[in-house]
Specification:
This protein is an alpha/beta fold. Helix content is about 50%, strand content about 20%. It has a single domain (about 30-270), classed as Alpha-Beta Complex (Spore Coat Polysaccharide Biosynthesis Protein SpsA, Chain A), CATH 3.90.550.10.
Length: about 270
Amino acid sequence: MDVAVLAPLTRAHAREKRRHDDVRNLVMELARSDFRRRHPDATFGPIVVLIASYLEADNIGAVLKGVPPEVDGHAVTTLVVVDGGDDGTEDIVAEHGAYCCVLPVNMGQGVALKLGYELADAYGAEYVVTLDADGQNDPAEIADLLAPVLADEADFVIASRRLGSDHTEDGVRRAGVVFFSFVINALAGQHLTDTSNGFRALKIDVLRDVTLEQDQYQTSELIISAAARGWRLGERPTLWHPRASGESKKGSNIFFALQYARVVLRTWLRERR
């Protein structure tokens, strides 16, 4: 195609990206202000358990109840980033004594987690554990997931349902876990068995170093970026539960696979450059 024909399309894409970035930055700044208003004297412990939540009011209470108050003598702080929605999740978080930051509109799990990483770093965390708000991860496993990181045997540890046990019934998604693990291992030079699991523990230094640009499907971006920069990645087995209630927000398996593949390819090309 002629360059003269492509030029207007390229300029339009650049304008749209700038507009999206401006909106994202504005929404994140509003959320930072919300956090400071809610918690003017905030101080985090060395371990922050970070949960991004979108319309999970029916599930998040049980998750918060299961988070341990300390791990290996290190105090644990729980931070929930509410990614928009109007189901009152922030009220449930407050009832459980956890910290809460609210994005005024739904921006995507990647944006919510990035904001959570930023707050964890700003308020004194040394380690971050992320887990889902829907009950698929067991907070009782946090200590086991953190163990190699606290012992300085790894910088970034991912829970693996393939090393443990997957109690869900979606065979297509299970096959996707195997396929994308193969692809990411080939691109990133790793030997991981579950590269699409959001239950993970990592040092704050890793989060300071990696590049995170994706609004969704951040797990693959985080793995590829961390591996490209030489951080030590590891795994621990996990027991993967069906979600406690409600429906997944990730969309159909085909949509998820296409979007996940897009993030993998874009991140790999970016890190190569």
